[in-house]
Write a structure and sequence with these properties.
There is one protein chain. The protein has helices at residues 34-38, 45-67, 86-103, 112-118, 163-173, 181-188, 212-227, 234-260, 275-288, 305-316, 333-337, and strands at residues 3-8, 13-20, 24-32, 76-82, 107-111, 131-136, 141-146, 153-157, 264-268, 291-293. The chain has 340 residues and is α/β, with parallel strands linked by helices. Strand 6 and strand 7 (141-146) form a beta hairpin. Helix 6 (181-188) packs across helix 8. The longest helix is centred in the C-terminal third of the chain and has 27 residues, at 234-260. It is globular and about 65 Å long. It starts with a strand and ends with a helix.
Length: 340
């Protein structure tokens, strides 16, 4: 069967999953910290680490129960090594090392962003290469080309704010609560895209992203209205902001597709759950005559199932790690797969 138990603690979700042969999801347990961090308007790293300590062991037991397995049914232990909050990462890494040592099983270190990409392996579609993947999350916005399994070439990335980070900050200034992304997406459907917010494309031919100007323009628009005592049409602001982000993401992805000529287009990361972005990627894939892969909604945000899926090719190639494994908060994709 080759069952991999995976642990994810990179930010504010404690997650444990068991996946068979990289595709069959046997257990998927997630303990959310949203209520804990909501009153602060964002994630507090020390509190996140403490919550991981409290939640992780019970989640491991629940995952084994859900999969109807005991420890003899686990063939490897995978864990997110980075990127992420260092204290949070260390909880997962330390636990995974202890389990791997106690069980005498391989320890597999996984890049969190590779995990988001490999969440697509848990869909009901087969993955075909070469492909272009747009990764959009709270901390990352990247265009990645893959010529084969576990081969990553970064075509473009954000030079400042990630798209997800911009969503969170705009949601905060609109007082939509935390996390703001899903609420902003829903609110945008009630508004009109009629505010002239910048859609920065950078220099000609660049596949990099920049959302700081857009974020600042939205914040200034809202602050100026409030200073004048005028009402803020939150739905219109949300609709105009979201349309600007999606427009840039679509046009950059279109440039990457035309440059690489892939047979597949892939979407990944927490913002992959955004309805307008999904629709834009569907339109692009249809226009170019290529297939589109998007993770199931519940696997777009942080989870351990995606970590197990990304660990499968490492397990197959016997690419295991030693017990001196450490968390790396700024881990790049190439750092973890260069010897794969």
């Amino acid at each position: 069967m080759a069952n991999i138990l995976a642990i994810e603690t990179s930010c504010d979700e404690t997650a444990v999953a068991i996946v068979s042969r990289g595709r069959e999801l046997l257990a998927n347990q997630v303990a959310s910290q949203i209520d804990t961090h909501a009153r602060f308007g964002g994630v507090v790293p020390e509190i996140a680490s403490r919550q991981h300590l409290l939640a992780l062991n019970p989640l491991i037991r629940k995952a084994l129960e859900e999969a109807d397995l005991d420890w003899s049914g686990i063939d490897a232990v995978a864990v997110t090594q980075g990127p992420g909050l260092v204290g949070a990462l260390l909880i997962g890494v330390s636990t995974a090392k202890a389990l791997a040592w106690a069980l005498g099983k391989p320890l597999l270190a996984v890049n969190h962003m590779a995990g988001h990409i490999y969440a697509n392996m848990l869909s009901d579609k087969d993955v075909e290469y070469p492909l272009v993947c747009l990764v959009v999350s709270g901390g990352h916005t990247e265009l990645i080309s893959m010529s084969g399994d576990m081969t990553f070439e970064i075509l473009g990335q954000t030079r400042d704010d990630a798209a997800g980070e911009a969503f969170d900050k705009v949601a905060r200034v609109l007082e939509l609560g935390y996390p703001g992304g899903p609420v902003l997406d829903k609110l945008a459907q009630e508004g009109r895209d009629e505010l002239d917010f910048p859609r920065t494309m950078l220099e000609e031919g660049s596949l990099d992203f920049s959302f700081s100007g857009l974020k600042t323009a939205v914040l200034n628009h809202v602050h100026n209205l409030r200073q004048k005592g005028e009402a803020v049409n939150k739905a219109d602001v949300a609709a105009s902001f979201q349309a600007a982000v999606v427009d840039v993401l679509r046009r950059k992805t279109e440039m990457a597709v035309d440059r690489v000529a892939p047979v597949s287009l892939m979407l990944a990361g927490g913002v992959a759950a955004n309805s307008q972005l999904r629709e834009a990627m569907e339109d692009l894939a249809t226009a170019r005559g290529i297939s589109l892969l998007v993770p199931p909604q519940h696997l777009c945000t942080d989870n351990a199932a995606m970590i197990a899926a990304a660990a499968w090719p490492l397990f197959v190639r016997n690419r295991q790690d030693n017990l001196d494994l450490n968390a790396i908060p700024g881990l790049d994709l190439d750092d973890i797969v260069e010897n794969c």
